[in-house]
Amino acid sequence: MNEPEPDYNRAHDFFANRYVERGMLKWQGYYLSDHTSALNKEATDKQPQQVHERQSSDTVRELLADAYANQYMVSIQRYPHNSDKVYAPDLTGHISGTTGDAVVLDTGQPLMINDIRHVKLIK
């Protein structure tokens, strides 16, 4: 038996006007169960950062000066700078110096004093 010749115009019309590309959605069935469980565990492990009591700028400056003079380690919580008001993890380290209205941690990271919400001395 002779097969009919394919209708290329019909196929072109289907792909040009009716077919909807699903993008990455079509590949979701290929995730391995180990990968899926790791993604789910990672999502549940993200605990919200503990919010410390807000300190006045004078208190922050006094604590930073004390830590610098006595070489205490500090834990610093910064104000959130994102739209969902999520606090970044506390920065921990020794203060290696100051520059104007900023302090520099031993990691080399400068922090503006006005961006610091809470300071805890670790003796």
Provide an overview of this structure.
It is a single chain. With about 120 residues, the protein is an alpha+beta fold. It folds into two domains: about 10-45, no CATH class; about 55-120, SH3 type barrels (Roll), CATH 2.30.30. About 30% of the residues lie in helices and about 25% in strands. The protein is built from three helices and five strands; from the N terminus they run αααβββββ. It has helices spanning about 10-20, 35-45, 55-70; strands spanning about 75-80, 90-100, 100-105, 110, 115-120. Strands 4-3-2-1-5 form a five-stranded antiparallel beta sheet, covered by helices on one side. β2 and β3 (about 100-105) form a beta hairpin. The chain is elongated and about 95 Å long. About 5% of the residues are buried. The mean pLDDT is about 85.
